[in-house]
Amino acid sequence: MAGDALKPIDFRPPRLLRNAHLQSILGSVPPRAWLTQRRAATLRAHAQPLLLDCGDAVRLQAFYSPLPQSRRASDGRRLAVLLHGWEGSVESPYVLSAAALLYAQGFPVVRLNLRDHGATHALNKELFHSCRLPEVVGAMRALAQRFPAAQLYLGGFSLGGNFMLRVAADDGAPDSIAGVVAVSPVLDPENTLQALERGLSVYRQYFVRRWSRSLRTKQQAWPEAHDFDALLLTRDLRRMTAELVQRCTDFKTLAAYLSGYAITGDRLKGLRVPAHLLLADDDPIIPARDLPRLQGNERLTIVRTPHGGHCGFIDGWRQPSFADRYLLEQFGTP
Question: What is the reported pTM?
Answer without folding.
Answer: 0.95
